[in-house]
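Schema walk-through. Below, the input block comes first and the output block second. Nothing else is stored per chain. Lengths vary across the set, and this one has 207 residues.
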Amino acid sequence: EEPRPQQNQSLRKEMVSHTFLICFFLYFCYVGIEGAVNTWLVTYLQNESQFSLSFSQKMLSLFWVIIILVRLVNIRVLKICKLANLLILQGIGILVFMGLVIANLGSTILVIAVIGLALCMGGISPCNALNAKKYMEGSGRLSGIIFAGGGLGSVILPIMIGTMAQNYSLKMGMFSIFLIMLIFTVIAIWNRSCHVNAEEITRNNVR
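--- output ---
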């Protein structure tokens, strides 16, 4: 076992590594977005599309049912699509469907957009966990920091969106989710480049 000073030094070095920061901010963005959608979707559907409270709540319930079902089958999707690629595709899908939610092109399109949003969001949580597998199975402190990042996002982002909605408009608040998801997608692209580089290094070492 490493002496404590060496352990602390190793921990600090790992915490500033780009792979750790990628995992941290992917968790921060996604868990925050999930919390924000859960907090504001019903209000948005009522205010922007004049849906009844009952129907809006049913849409939120359907949203979560779809997310749970997608998480159950996500492992099968990973058999045909690489993890890093899937994170990017999910991010792009959320951007498309969130754009449709914000555009509010009619009740039917809005319902389809919410369903599409759930389909794309459902697989991100297990993909994030697999992407951070190195830290989840290693240091308990590192995995705790990553989970804390998700918890921080779930607190900060819904409040930020609420502030935007109060000071500007609810649509502007939802647009904030779009921007955060754009950041998530850019980080996911960076994550993929790191995976590709790691694979190339592994192949070169084998040779």
